[in-house]
Each structure stands twice: as C-alpha cells, then as structure tokens.
Amino acid sequence: MAGYESAEPEVAGVRVPDTRLAAEATELVRETAPELIYHHSRRVYYFGALRGRRRGLSYDPELLYLGAMFHDLGLGEEYRNSGRRFEVDSADEARRFLAARAVPEDSIRRVWTAIALHTTPGIPEFMEPEVALVTAGVEYDVLGLGYDSLDEADRTAIVARHPRPDFKRRILAAFTEGVAPKPETTFGNVKADVLAHFVPGFTPGDFVTTIEESAWPE
C-alpha cells in the first residue's frame, strides 16, 4: 500500500517487502502461530530469497514472503480435525487472507500453489519462481538441502535474527501434533514418515495394497 514504510532491517542482503500486505501477514502469523512456526517461516523467506538469487531467478518478493509466512499455519490446533492435508489448510488460509484484500487471482493462485506443494519434492522446482522458492526455503531450513550453497555469514545473520534452538526436535513435534489426528492425510507424502517415527501403532498407507484391494474386478 502506498505510503507504508517498513522498519524491517536488511538481513543477509534480503529485505522483507515494505508493503502493508506483508506487514499484516507478519502480524497475523505472530498472533496466531507458535514462536517456533513464526521464526521458521521467516527463515524460509530469507533462505528462499537467497537460493533464488543464486539461481538467478526473478520473483515477486511479496508473493514469496506471503507463501513462506502462511505455509505451516495449517498445523494449528483449529485444523487438526479438518480431514484435509495441513498444506491445503495452510494454502486456504492464505487464499482467504489475500482475497479479503482484493489481491489479483493469479497472485493468489501462486501463493496457494507454493504452500500446497511445499512438501511435494520434485515438482515445485519446475514451476513459477515463487512456488519453487518457498519449497527451496523449506528444504533448506528443515532438511538442510544445499546447506553449503549459502554463505556462512548469511546463514549466521538469518539465524541470529530468527533463532532455531532445538529446532529439529521441536519441528518434528509440531508436525506430529499437527497431522496425528488425521493420519489418513499422510498417504503418499512425507508426513507419513513423521507419524511412523513418533506415533505408536501407526501404519502408513501402501500404494500397491491400495491398488490390489481396490473395488475393481479383475
């Protein structure tokens, strides 16, 4: 929005967009998500932006920021009985937020897609830059993929701004809490691994068995 000035400092050569939309998204996530998710989401933006710079990608920083900030909101307690993948719940929250502010549909689509696909490796990297870079930021912060591809000084500056104490254990706990009440939503995706490790008695869905036991006669 014209006339809005952000007090956000530059971190590792990256700035949070100086827009009212970005500021309102920041406020919403700070108020509704745990500190763990807030700091993780901010790091996803910074890491995604840096990986985009290294790849020479031209992207819309505001859309990348919105995708990063909303990508894990669906892990929240209010969504645990939705029966849908948490990624879709997160994406739909972003859609509602953006539609209420008259954001163009193509921009909403990019943000929705970036969020919905952020745990589906092998696809986002071939899509629009904003979609690719939300996933790239998530993969860097959670999985450490391409860890040495970013400068240590940049990585240190980002983590100083948004610390990650005991992050591996805590994010796995957040994933478990977010999806354990709807285990059927992990069929065919990475969160099945989380439940297999942390939920006693969980049996992941099996693609081959699903085909063999389908209702189709042979």
Automatic annotation (TrEMBL):
Gene3D superfamilies: Hypothetical protein af1432
InterPro entries: HD/PDEase_dom, HD_domain
Domain HD: 38-125
Pfam families per the UniProt record, alphabetical: HD
Bilayer-spanning residue ranges: none
The protein, known as: HD domain-containing protein
